[in-house]
Amino acid sequence: MIRPLLFCALLATSAPLLASSFAGTTAGSASGASSKGSSSSSDDDKVVQAAREEAAGFVASDGKLRGARLQAALLHLRQQDAGAAEASDMELARAILAR
């Protein structure tokens, strides 16, 4: 019961932050993904989607809980997007939750 409520609260509070932090970076990743083909973008989505639950735990614990899927997604995002390479782990975790 608490977990869904916590997730919704975190998602609602992080939305304004994400709009200002990642406005330019999402466009760059979308254009890069379209040139690579559909299988590449679906693989990207699988890596990031698999990390959503761990991203929620990371944000809820203020960065204390880190899982292997979240670490893989953070690395993947940073390799795919120059803007993400400059973002903090917390910013990227919030971006994963906003997807």
Element-level helix/strand string: HHHHHHH
Helix content: over 70%
Mean pLDDT score? 74
* Major beta-sheet overview: none
| Shape type | globular
Low-confidence stretches: 15-39
Q: How many structurally independent domains?
A: 1
Structural class: mainly alpha
Contiguous helical run count:
7
Descriptive report:
- The chain is mainly alpha-helical.
- It has one domain (about 1-99).
- It contains seven helices and no strands.
- The protein has helices spanning about 1-20, 25-35, 40-50, 50-60, 70-80, 80-85, 90-99.
- The longest helix is centred in the N-terminal third of the chain and has 20 residues, at about 1-20.
List keywords for this structure.
99 residues; mainly alpha
Task: Explain the layout of strands and helices.
Blueprint lengths: L1 H20 L1 H14 L1 H13 L1 H9 L7 H13 L1 H5 L2 H10 L1
Helix pairs in contact: 1-7, 2-3, 3-5, 4-7
